[in-house]
Design brief:
Blueprint (H helix, E strand, L loop, with lengths): L1 E3 L4 E4 L3 H10 L6 E5 L19 E2 L14 H10 L2 H9 L5 E4 L2 E4 L4 H14 L2 E5 L3 E7 L2 E6 L3 E4 L1 E4 L14 H8 L8 E3 L3 E3 L11 E11 L2 E12 L3 E3 L1 H6 L8 E5 L6 H15 L4 H6 L5 H10 L13 H13 E8 L7 E3 L20 E3 L13 H21 L1
Parallel strand pairs: 1-10, 2-3, 2-11, 3-7, 11-20
Antiparallel strand pairs: 4-6, 5-6, 8-9, 9-10, 12-19, 13-16, 13-18, 14-15, 14-17, 15-16, 17-18
Helix pairs in contact: 1-4, 1-11, 2-11, 7-10
Length: 411
């Protein structure tokens, strides 16, 4: 059965991007249908921030542009059109106050369900029909519009928004359906994989130091023997490898087999570190090496492990250090190598890297450059943000921009 022209817009996917796009496009008597394959909307949203829902980040919206890897330029129009301040106002005006902690913005209630309830309520107020438990099986073009086939029926519409998310946390319904739809409609999809995830390390030497953290370490990415990127951030030792914001944010670029070199001396490059360490050793005389290293504000258990790895006795003094031992210690301090065995999988990673190619999307409207009337918003796109609310802001902002474009011809 084909239900022709019952709806002017169909949104596929009931996450934050899809819900927000639908409610922003609603009004003026237009009929909008949101299709969600799960039995309820917003499943992944409810897991955000361990259920506390870090909706965005504080500060000037232009500072966000450096938090989306290489794709800040693409998302700029979306962010400027609907900013973090706009998002905070949206929820505050609906009697959901927010609180900022270390730059991260949360609902005061710290409950993601409160965010979801408002999105669903606003969809209802705009007469958006939400239909759950009926997966979309196929999206195709037909007579200047689209045919959307579900398990129950087929719809014909003029505008389609694909907001199905990525491939991570598949238990929430993020299984890459939108990527398949995009391909079938002629779009290119870049390689997808886990992002915002920890990394496991081959022959990891620090498993007994799990829980120890470092601030503002320098992380260098080595691929095929060549340094290709560098990042600065906080680091956490786990039982099997490395985590913490610095690793999570950098993980979009990391692949199994890569080498990470970590400098544990914040803000100090290798030549500076060598100069400082040599000067302190020469000045220390008969002081133990571990006490010399204590001046770098490094955890004691970590220092002891470094000495073991460098072949230096725990009671050895600076004056007793050989040139080789000093060199080994310096290398461990300023470029400790970690070979990546694997990244956290799709069941662990917070977001997906890769997705619908941005070259084929108009960043000023979120509309396909290949298929008029087709829009992509949220995580289905080849864009992922750092930790701290940047991904949810991208979901809301891309959804709002698409809705703005869709509403123009509908008004």
């Amino acid at each position: 059965m084909i239900a022709k022209d019952l709806y002017s817009l169909i949104v596929i996917g009931g996450g934050p991007a899809g819900l927000f796009c639908a409610l922003r496009a609603a009004g003026n008597g237009q009929k909008i249908l949101l299709l969600e394959k799960n039995t309820s909307v917003g499943r992944k949203l409810l897991l955000t921030g361990s259920g506390q829902c870090n909706i965005t980040h504080d500060g000037d919206i232009r500072s966000f542009l450096s938090h989306y890897g290489d794709n800040g330029r693409f998302i700029k129009p979306s962010l400027l059109n609907f900013q973090n301040r706009d998002l905070v106002s949206f929820f505050s005006e609906r009697e959901l106050p927010v609180v900022t902690e270390s730059g991260k913005v949360f609902p005061v209630s710290r409950k993601a369900i409160n965010i979801l309830d408002i999105l669903v309520k606003e969809c209802s107020a705009g007469k958006v029909e939400i239909r759950c438990g009926d997966p979309v099986l196929d999206v195709s073009t037909r007579e200047g519009g689209f045919l959307i086939r579900t398990g129950r029926e087929t719809f014909r519409v003029d505008h389609v928004v694909i907001a199905t998310g990525g491939i991570t946390y598949p238990v929430t319904g993020s299984t890459g359906d939108g990527l398949s739809f995009a391909k079938s409609l002629g779009h290119r999809v870049t390689e997808v994989g886990p992002a915002l995830t920890a990394v496991a390390i081959q022959d990891y030497p620090f498993s007994t130091l799990s829980g120890i953290s470092f601030t503002d370490v320098i992380i260098s990415l080595i691929q095929a023997g060549r340094k290709v990127r560098q990042h600065t951030g906080d680091l956490l030792f786990t039982h099997s490898g490395l985590s913490g914001p610095g690793i999570l944010d950098f993980s979009r670029y990391i692949r199994p087999g890569d080498t990470l070199r970590i400098s544990f001396l914040p803000g100090v490059d290798h030549p500076q570190a060598k100069e400082i360490l040599i000067a302190r050793i020469n000045a220390a005389g008969n002081r133990q090496v571990k006490k010399i290293l204590a001046a770098f504000d490094l955890p004691d258990r970590f220092v002891r492990k470094l000495l073991d790895l460098a072949g230096i006795k725990q009671d050895q003094t600076g004056a007793q250090l050989s040139r080789e031992a000093r060199s080994a210690l310096l290398d461990l301090l300023t470029g400790c190598p970690f070979i990546v065995s694997r990244l956290g999988g799709i069941h662990e990673a917070m977001v997906t890297r890769g997705g619908v190619s941005l070259d084929e999307i108009n960043p000023k409207t979120m509309e396909s450059r290949l298929v008029p009337g087709l829009f992509f918003v949220g995580e289905v796109l080849d864009i992922d943000g750092d930790t701290g609310g940047y991904n949810l802001q991208a979901a809301f902002s891309t959804g709002a921009l698409a809705a703005k474009r869709i509403a123009e011809p509908l008004c």
